[in-house]
Amino acid sequence: MQVLHLELTNFRSYEAAEITFAPGVNVLVGPNGVGKTNIAEAVGYVSTLNSHRVAADLPLIRQGNDQAIVRSTFSRGQREIQLEIAINQGRANRLQVSGSPVRATDFISQLQTVVFAPEDLSLVKGDPSDRRKFLDEVLVARAPRYHSVKADYDRVVKQRTTLLRSIAGTRGASSRAGAESTLSVWDDQLAAHGASLLFGRLSLLNEISGLVSQAYEHVAPGKSAGIAYLPRSFSDIPSEDSLPRNRQALEELLHKEIALRRSEEFARGVTVVGPHRDDVLLTIGELPAKAYASHGECWSMALALRLAAFELMRTLDDSVGDPVLILDDVFAELDSTRRKALAQVAMTAEQTIITAAVAEDVPAELAAQQFVVTPGQVARGN
Ligand SMILES: Nc1ncnc2c1ncn2[C@@H]1O[C@H](COP(=O)(O)OP(=O)(O)OP(=O)(O)O)[C@@H](O)[C@H]1O
Ligand SMILES: [Mg+2]
Q1: CATH classification of the domain holding 326
Q2: Owning domain of residue 125
Q3: Of 112, 116, 125, 187, which is least surrounded by CB within 10 A?
């Protein structure tokens, strides 16, 4: 697929900007702080409703305004589709696909993108939540219904935790018994939605693990890399190998664990069982990357994860085509082997959007449409 056109109103540093992208490689060039990443972020946002830089929407709205609008036309196969988002301060955002209002689940992944950015180093060195976010984003891109599975699960964890906290602070036996019977309803929901999410993540891991190894071999020949799911919330299941690959069986397992950890949950007032506690183990050679990888190896690993996601999505459905590859400020950080490996993928992608402070950072073999970015404006450069 290809982004044909992007129009921003009061998005980040742009009061009003329009860009017509070319097929193939597009490079946005300009000095630090002019607004290159803001463009890449806008394309990523209409794809996933997530920014690769911030968790909240507010910074996306141009300072002093209360609404940002991002419009994009993209092509998928023979079809042209318009996406529009109004990001509203203090109110729900409004989403439209080709003029019709839609819910988030029907908006996400209309346009598919894979973003690789310096922030991705946290996939290797950061908290488990960064790695869970990676998995869940790819999961949603691959099967958008997981957007609501994840939202339902997050809601259950939040409400169940609130209840546990109130039980932890309750003294009277009768009010405690009342709260505990309400808890059993939340237990059922935690197990049901948790099993769906866990099942999705395990299926994804199964599909992506070979691709991660291949991609790592491609970007950093000589050492092998691996990825495995770390189910943290089961007392006697240390690795994913011992987990059933069946949603019903996972739900039963979660139920058992919830019963087993009941007193711990009461004492701490926290939901300790469920996939919100899990992690992903990344290895380079035999060693866990988080504790052992060098700076360069972290870059290779992060790149391999994104390239694996790209590879997975491009092979999903031939009629959809490749996701748009977005490379935000990454070439300057890579050595020549990794630059070449990434350039090779960028060249074969249907469309790539690259940001760089100077044009020389981008490998010369990438014959690209250049855009010169100056504060508040983007102009065609060649
Ligand atoms: N909500 C906002 N309102 C106004 N300006 C904003 C907003 N969010 C970000 N900016 C401005 O946008 C600029 C940063 O833009 P961006 O991150 O796209 O720069 P860049 O060209 O990618 O720079 P670099 O080369 O350093 O990565 C900053 O000057 C920042 O102050
Ligand atoms: Mg930038």
Answers
A1: 3.40.50.300
A2: 118-317
A3: 125
